Each structure stands twice: as structure tokens, then as C-alpha cells.
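Blackboard transcription, Thursday session:
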Amino acid sequence: MSDRSRKEELDDFWSFDDLIPKKKMPSSSGKKEYGIKDPVEIINEINLIDNKENKGFSDQPISSSLSKNVHYVHPYEPQKRNLPTPLFEYSPDNSLIHNVKIYKWESNYNYYEQFRMYAEKFFSVEGKPCEHVPYFSYVPQYNQLSRAQLEFYFWWRTLVRRGEYIDVDYSYILLYIFETINLSREHDWKLLQQSLFDVWLAYRENYVRLDKLLSEWIFDFSMIHRLPPPKGRLPVAAIDKSCGVAEFFVSANGTNPDKYVSALLALCSSYDYKKSKFYDGENIALYDKYVHSALRTALGYLSEKGKVLGKIEYGDSKVSREAYVGALCSWPAKRRIEIEFCSFSRSHELRYLVGDIVKLTENMLRAYMGVKSRLSVYAVDAELTEIIVAHLKNELPPKVRRNTISVAQAQIEKKYELPHKPLSLSDAAKIEDESWQTTKILVEAFEDENESVDEKPTMNDYVEKINGNQEKQEQRQDDSGSLATSLGRYLNYVRSLLQNDISACRAEIYKLNESEETVVDRINEICADVMGDIIIDGCEGSFSIIEDYEQMLIEELNVQGEK
Amino acid sequence: MSSEIKDIQKVPKRILTSLLASVSAGVVPRVGAPYIAIGRQDEIGALLSDLEAIDAGGTSMRFIIGRYGSGKSFLMQLIRGYALERDFITADADLSPERRLYGAGGSGRATYRELIKNLASRSSPDGGALSKIISRWIDSIQTKLINDGVEADSPLFYTKLNAAVNDKLCDVQDLVGGFDFARVISEYYRAYKEGNDEKRAACMRWLRGEFSGKTEAKAALGFSVSTVVDDDNWYDFMKLWAVLVRSMGYRGLVLFIDECVNLYKISHRISRENNYEKILSMFNDTLQGRACGLGIIFGGTPQFLEDTRRGLFSYEALRSRLCDSRFAIDGFKNLIGPVIRLRRLSDDELFALISRVTKLYAQNYGVEPRISDEDKVKFLEICLSRAGADSMITPREMLRDYMTVLNILMQNENVSFDDVVGSAVTLKTDDNTEKEEATAAEKKIYTPQDIEF
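(Written on the board underneath:)
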């Protein structure tokens, strides 16, 4: 095939030539030209407009001929968005939630329609007693159930409606919840809400995830069906802090501050008193009682016209949320909810106020316990501070001067106490006599050549030895009168030292062929044996006889002359 | 003089003077303590048996625990004196904020330096015995060679002397830091023979732990060493000393570490636990027999031992080793364990102590004090009647006051015991004043109102 025919056959799709931008050929001079290519006429003189004749401006609109060359920037005109209208809007009787708007879910879908139909269909089915059949599904639906499972589900649902809660798989519970929230005909919504709440309470210990799911879904259910919070004692711990609608469960009927206290402490406080280092031991009861009491008192002060926290002005938060997130929810039941409420997490004023009330209470408790350190309190005004302080002063029990020694310490001290015994002169004399024995043991050194390795001498052994060796001791004392004899070859050195004759001392050292320190050491040892004490003191090069023994040695060693 | 004095050994005058001076000043006597050792027989017996174990090549560690003024330091001085008499080498140190068992700022080394400074032997009981014991050891080796027939002037003498010294140091080289230790001792001896005082002083400084780094040590010694005494290894050097003194012929090395409450007072928890870790290491070494011939005695307060938040019992490893067995019941003494608890002296023991001091006073001054047993009882009652005396009375305060009374009585012959003690104690009240005036009138003592012209 020729090239031409090939070209004809190829379509333009593969032709890139048209697509590649054509390169501009450089000018022959090689210089780049910038700016305007056409020459511009330079006007040297500018003719000023004569304002007398001309107005300087024309109040005539610019003609269309000129408008072709003049570009205008049109002023911005915000386009009105087509906002959806809520299905309905209302203000619940709730001190924290002030306005609710319910919107239809915008994007429709129909893949849960069958489930919704079955939910309506099976709503009034009564179950019959049957055995438990295990069931698991991530998104439980009726069409997944076998006959036996369905029968068990109905039986379990019947029990739940009666208020009996047997052990059941998590998937059955989810099925029940999905069934409830997808009902679309008229039902007793209050009863259904209460049923969901009771299921939550009954199974939340076994299935912890229910805390997160049902706290959100029950809120959505309540808002959509204009219901107040369900009745029942819900532990504050059940409301996850990550739950964005904790305020709904906190504020029931806003006249009783007591209901608020625990929730506020758990959810809306900048300071957790349970993390205080003094919250331990016997102080726990003290803290729990008086922090609640003080906060209750503060809420009473801050309430106005039956509205808890009515005196506080805090801005509402506006939140738009999708209903039944994570649940199997058909489009007719799906809603978007907009609420305006006082948010614990978003309202810093309330959070810091509650936190500082707790801190103020802790400061009072610390003073009561005798702890000197204090927490800083900023958000509580003087009037409220006075009220809380006065309340706690009345409520706190009188300070009991605690014995600073705790029980454990008392037990330790007991080991070092003596039983009381009146003074007895005879016992004292006996003790002193026995102590002389101790003195003898401690003062005298024994020769242990007859001791065997295995025998460990005891205190009594020492006493017996003293009595046995006493005779030897007396004999030694008689012999020791001749100190000169004991000193032996060191005698001349001692004499020279007594006479302060340094050269003679050195000569003796040389004769003895030992260092002076060694000689002094040996002399002191001999005298310690004989006299019980050393006689030479000092360091190398400056040894001297101890003054107390000079005269005695001069007499005993017959040293002639005095110093 | 009474016949009792004849039964005891006559107290050397220097010791007696020093003893009474210490008692008058209210400090623990460093000499003569055995002469006023009243009671504590069981505790003393237990500690003496520890010394026997050390003598046999074993080890021991004791904690003497008692309140302030209960006699811990006194008991430690007693045992120290006994150990010196029996040819042990002792070293003692009082802990303080600057001297600890472990510390990054040289406080561990400061403890070592204090111990070595206070190294004592029988012939140097007041400390500073380091150079003496080394000199004596070298001389003893020389004497042995001479007795074996080697001429002192012959060249063979020095060869044999070197060999003997190295042989003695072999035992030390196997231990941690032993090689450098043996090298320095060996160089010390060589410098001693050559008369090189500068090198001798440098070796002595190394042994005392006065060098802060190897570079400084090398510059002074003239040879390089791989280690110097520092905060981490000072205890290893004490173990080396224990081995060396035994090879020198002594019975062993006994360390007395008092005022351990200063460890309890360390506010920084990590620092405090590092010190307790050191005690644990010492405890394990001694009780497992890894420190031959070494005894360690700690003195501390009950809080130092038993406080579960800051004391030794806060450190679980030490608590499990030192706490009482569950079978230890109050009222039963157990002195086999590492902890010796000291209660205060009983009233009888305090009276015996006063009587003893009276006798020693009489012996020292050669006069019989004008004080009867009834006076002593009265004095004791006055001391014990003070508020809190039943638990807080300390013998040193009582003895200090008693010595004052004896001194006054000796120097003022017209004054009686009642005059000295009664006037110091009796509160002047209106009733007393009236009574005094009435008594004065009866005795026909002239008062200013009585004077007639």
C-alpha cells in the first residue's frame, strides 16, 4: 500500500500535528520583542478639558458603541440557593436543646424497602416459646433468617415487650433495633422509644457497643418523633464522651438540678476531681459527697424561673446530623436533623464554670484535710464563691484533730516502745553489775587459739571466759608493771621520743630496720595490750608521746632529765 | 574508793578523761564507751558473733534501728572499739546531704573518702591508719624475708620482696578494679623503697579516691590506670580493701555507716531509690558471701527503715529481705535477722548508767561525789517527769545534766544536791515564797526586814 493511501485511511484521531501548538519562528534579528508591537503615537501636549465649557463629565450613559470596547465587571449578586424546607420544626421542652428541625433525606434509595415492609408486616406477630438458635450478621435482615431463627426472634421480641430479657445474640438485638426505627405507620412511639432504651440497659453489659450505637439512635428516634428522653436510670458511663448528643440524656425535665450534677461532672467539666492525688483512701467518700453537694448548690443558684442554668447566657451551637448513622434505615425513615442546643463540648463557658466549681470545692476539702496546696479558680464569681463556701462550711463535719500517726505508723512505733515498769534500785544494781561483765568483754581481747572453727561463741561463752581468764588477767596486770620489758627493742626509741631527741629517734629507726610508722604502730600495740591505750600520736615525721602519759612513762622507763 | 572499783580494770587516764569530756558535752564518746555500756547485752552479743563470722572469712550486714537518742551511735562505737581491739580494721562515716551511697555529683565518692580517712586499726584508733597499715605490711614482708635468711643488702632481697608483694596482691587482682588496685599498691611500695615521696603521695591520693578522673590520675601517678574511685565503683573498692587487709594479717574490715536517715530525706525519688539500690547490692553481696571478710553496719531511724513511702520498705526488694517474719510476735526478741531494733533504756538501766558515771567521775577526780542513791533517784524522777520523757528521753541529755550537777557539787562544797537540783526545778509560786519565808524565820536566817540597828 502506498503512503498516500495509508494516509487517507488513517483518521485524524492519530494525527497529532493539529494538536501540537505551532512554534513561533524567531525574528531574524534574534532579539526578543516585548510589549506592544504596533508603534504608539506619543502625545507631547495634553489638552486639558475646559471645565467652564465642558462639565468634565457627562451624565449621559455611555453609548453602546463605546461599550463594545469597555469591559465591565458585573457587580456580585448572590444567587438565592434553593434550601430545602424542613418537614417540621419544633422547640422541645428541654433546657439544653432549644430548636429541632427535621428534614427529609435528599438522596433517595430503595434497597431497604423490603425490610421496611417486613418490619410493618411482622410488627404484631407474637412469638411462641422455642429454643435459642444462633444467628450472626453484620447487617441483620429478615431475609437472612431461617425459619427457626425467625421463630426464635419473634419469641425473644415477645419477651422483650413483656420486659423479660434473656440471653441472646447481638444480631437479634440489632434486628430488633432496625425494625423499630424503620417503622413508618402510626405506632406508639413513646412505647417503642422506651423499649429501645430498656433493651439498651438490659444488654449493655454484654454488648458494650450498644452504648455508642443506641445513644445516637435513640436520640435520633426521639427527635424525629418529638419525644422527651426515655425514663430510666442510665449510668453516666453509658454515655460515651464521643457521643455528640449527651445533652439530650442529661436534661430531662429541667427543674431538678440533681439530675444534672452527675452528668455535668462526667461530661461538662474542665477538671476531673477523681484524678486528684488526694482522691484516695478515706477521702474518696468525702470528695464524692461534697463535690456533688457543692455543684447542686451552685446549680440551684444558677437556675432561674425553673430553668436549670437559666442565669447563664451561653451561645447555642447548631449541628446538622444524619439520623441513624450505621443503621439499616430505609429512605422513608431516613432524616436529617438540625438542632440548636447548648453543647457541653462546645460551650467553654459552662465547661470552665463547672470545672472551677469543682476546683473551689476541692480547695475547701484540701483545707479541711490539712493540705496546703490550692487549685486556681477563675470562672466563679464572688457571689457564687460565697454561697459555695458557706454551704460547705455548714455541711463539712467538724475538723477532728487526727492523730498524725496513722495506724501503720503506730504499729511501727510500738516496736520501739518500752513496757512501763517502776524503778527498782535492786534491779538497777543488778544491771550495773552485769554491765561490768560486758565492759570486760569489750575492753579485753582474747586469745582464740583454743577455739574450734565450728563453735561460735555466744554471749554466755564470753561471760564464762571472762571468769576463767580473770586469773590470767590479774597475773598479766602484775607482769605489765614492767612496761620496759614489754617494749623490748623499741624501748630506746620511746626513750628518745620522750627526750624529744629526733636524731636519736632516727638512729633507732635505722637500727630497727623498719619504717618509723611501723615502729610506732608496734609500740602502740604493745602499750594497748599492757596499758589499754596507745602512747604515741601523730603522723610520719612528727610523732610525739601523748601528754597524758608523759610523766608516767618518764617515771616508769627511768628517763633522765625532763623536756 | 568503793570495793567495786577494785574489780574492774583500772581505766587508763586518757581514756577516762576523754570519756567524761564526751559525756559532759553530750556527744557519743569515741574512746572509753565500754565503760558506760549499760544493758544491750543481747544486741552486743549478736554483733560480736557477727565479728566472729567476719573473722572466719564470712560477711555480715546489720541495720541498727532506733529513735534519736536510743543509743545507735553508742552501740556502733562500742562494737567499733571491740573490733579494733581484736585486730579488725574499721572505717566509719556519717551520711549527710553531701555524703551518700550513690550520687552523680561525687557524693558516693565522698562517702568512700570519709571511710578511708577514718580507717582505723588497733594502734591508730582515731583514724588515718591507711599509710600505717600499708607500711607495716611491707615491713612485715621484709622482716619475714630477713627471718628466712635473705640478707637485706643482697640484690636477691629485692627480687624476693617484689615476688612476695605480687603474690599477696594476686588475690586482689581477680576482683573488680583489682588490677589497678594491685598496681597502685605495688607502685606505692616501690616508691616507698626508692624514697620517692611524690609518687608515694600520688599513690596514696589514688587509694583515697581523691582523683576525679583518669587523666588527672595518670598525670600524678606517672602510669595509666583504667579506673579511679568514683560514685559507681567505690563499694567495689571497699571489697578490695577487705580482701587486702585480710591478706595483710588483719581479721577483716568493718564499715560503720551512721545517720542513714539522710537517705530517707532525699526528696528526689529516683535518687533515693538509687541509694537504696546500692544498699540492696551491699546486702546481696554480704548475705551471699561474695565480699570476703567484710562487715557493714548501718545506723538509722525507724522512718528510714519502715516508712513504706520513703523508707527502705518502700523499695520492695529490700522490704522483702528486711521485714519481720509473720511469726515474729511482739515481745519476742529476734536478733538473728539483719535488723536490730533498739528501744530506749529502761528506768533501771538509766539509774545504773548514772551510778556508773558517778563511779567513773570519782575515779577521775579522786573524790567521792556528794550524792546518794536517793539523790540519784530524785534526779532520775525529775528527768522522767518532763513532758514526753517516757518516749523522748535520751541518755545523752540526761548524762549531760547529771555531769553538770556533779561538777557543781564538786566545785561548791557548801552546796547540797537539793540546792542544785531543787532550785533549778521548783517553780516560784506565792505559796512557795510564803513557805520559804516561814522556813527562814524558823531557821533564824536574817532577812532584810529583820535587820535592826
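Lecturer's comment: The first helix of chain B runs from residue 3 to 7.
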